[in-house]
User: Fold these one by one.
Assistant:
Number 1:
Amino acid sequence: MTKPPPPNAPLEILHDGRYIQAVRVDRWEYVRRKNTTGIVVLVAVTPDQELILVEQHRVPVGGPVIELPAGLAGDIIGSEAEPLEAAAGRELEEETGWRATRLARLTSGPVSAGLTSEVVTFFGAYDLERVSDGGGDASEDIIVHHVPLADVPTWLAAQMARGAQVDPKVFAGLYFALSM
């Protein structure tokens, strides 16, 4: 078992990119995201009991990925102190075209604790109202899917059969969606 680095171990920047840094602390090398205060993930169920999912081409995995709506907090110039809840509402509307009357924090945790310092916070989105088509901002090409809760497992299997990858956070979100 690898021992953790001492609490006062210096941080060495191995690579400083526009959006990420590769760093080393003692023998641990990992990635950390720059210019953001957190990551939000939305579990949103429409009034018709459909789970809202998004699909995007993701360059690192070379193809389409089915995901829960998600995004960064504090990444917009002038809004660096944006609260996570505000980012969650903004991302839900931007990506999906739905607005939540109420957002509630469900849980948070690391994405890949051995590779990155990222921690995601899940929010439940309640009392939804459709306000636009969604699809993301000018830099995104998002397909919005509305999948009946009872059909989600079968639908996801069909997406995987056609070659799309499914972000495992979808399954965590489904757990929460079934209790909303």
Number 2:
Amino acid sequence: MQLDELLIAAAEAPPESRIDYRDPLAAHGDSAVEALMTPSWIGDPSYAGFAIQTIRKAGELGASSAVGALRRAASIVSMEWHQKDIANALVSLGVAAPRTKSSKKQSVAPSTAPIAPDDLVVGRCYRRLDLHNGGLGGNRQKGISYPARGTYCLLFSDPNKVHDYGYKDQPIGDAGYRYFGEWSGAGDMVMTGGNKAISDRSPELYLFTAAACGYVFRGRQRLVAVDHAKATRDGREFNAIVFVLETQP
């Protein structure tokens, strides 16, 4: 598997089986170390332990950046047991552990960094709150989220979840995606609101899929077709809009 594929798989894996991806990721050496030294991995307490163990393994396999990365990680992680993991990892690689800041200072969360659509990295996991607070704007609750004066649209999806109305989004091959629109009334889905935004703002459609870590960015999408499917609301059958998307290179 390619590095990006492994990162996505590890992010989506249950905590008890995520360790299975440590060695395959570590085999990518310095590239894996760089990918794991990001806010969505080493900066997230839920994933920092895995990142530390994978960076240590990469160092054991010869990654030259592993020691420096672990030293930097000591000033990033906020949990005491992660500090201990780093110290043990450095010792296993033959170097002394760095001094750390007081736990009081470490517990202070940094402010959300500014983010623009072009800053998004395919395969990286993001917290939805950070995306909105970082400047991307839009509605924080809807699956179709877009700023009123912007030219882009954020699409949030969970392909593993069946909607209350009986349908679910799903990938098509390696570069396609079927994304259901939103309801704006009691009848059929119509091309207004978020649905119109998808149509009007293509190809600046940024797709995220749900994972244990938050939302994994799947890349910028282009609308290639509009389809329809049957859906049931309150015991009655209606037409739902299905957007057929294609990942842009």
Number 3:
Amino acid sequence: MKDSVSFKHWRRVQDLASREWTADPNLIKNEFAEAQRKYQTVLKKIEADYNFQDSFDILDLGCGPTLVGRLFAKGKLVGIDPLANELKIQKLYPAVKIVNGRGEELPFADESFDVVFCRNVIDHSQSPRKIVSEAHRVLRKSGLLLLACYVYNPFIASMKFLADETGIEKNIGHPFTFTPKSFKNLASGKFAIAEEILVHEGMGPHDYGKINGPATHWSFWYDMVLFLNFKILRYPWFVRELLLVCRKDA
């Protein structure tokens, strides 16, 4: 897997994200409702299992305008996003400190946080490894990285790579595609993985657990891939949203 993309490519990813957030007036509401459905119970259990305190400093890395980190019941939340100024995220959450910045270059001192929460970010980034490394740097000893991303079974991941490389279906907004193995390898290079949580399992190319349901558009390419995936190779799933609970210096 490639380690990074060019800054120009990353900038295109951000421009695309900005247009998506501003084009649909209901997107923030729907995206947060999806995250709430998926993560409210999960995060509550993590808070109990890992003894979260009200004094904890929590960073929502790549918070976007949904600021999913506000689902934490305990701790003092800070959000950071490269589109924070452009999307005026601070105005949406005046009680939370919002910083404009990149995950690859976090503008915080070493050991500033007890928890870093990073959901649905690294596959949109310039360098996933730099983001994980920066999360490690800003975490205090025994701090937690809660790292979540969509992952694909090996066949689907290879098909997505083929489609992107050949131009069958370019996905500019997602420069990186992970399998469960490559996703866990990304984290385990810096952290000890304490727990792996399956947040969502999807059976098709539009089944990501969105509030407004899967899209209805299909193509011959999708039909062929799904036939091979389920009927020939017998993979029981297409996409998963996976959350890794990673401990620093464990």
Number 4:
Amino acid sequence: MTEAPLLLFDGVCNLCNRSVQFVIRHDRKQVFRFAPLQGETARRILAPFGERPEGSVILVHRGILYTRSAAVLETLRLLGGAWGSLYVAKVIPKYLRDKLYDWIASHRYRWFGKREACMVPTPELQSRFL
């Protein structure tokens, strides 16, 4: 298991793809790695955690699996800077954060659309995708 944070995302979801692009732009140290949830890498990484966890974005870091709102907040914390300060939202009870996350996730295809295939990274970003 890699020490680098691994962001697993719904590869056909436009919102998820935009979220990955956001992380890439703000990951100044280029520590994040990425893989679509539809791929073999995600199946292999998630296998030790049992059945597939819920969420359109899942973060795996240092052997810990973060799902739903926790994945979003931990990703922002790891980005640091002003984005890391949003981690303060962790004080909101998890069930409320996850309720908002689930509501957005359930509408993501309708609001942002869906691709026919997973995102293909540019040659410059290829090494960050597993």
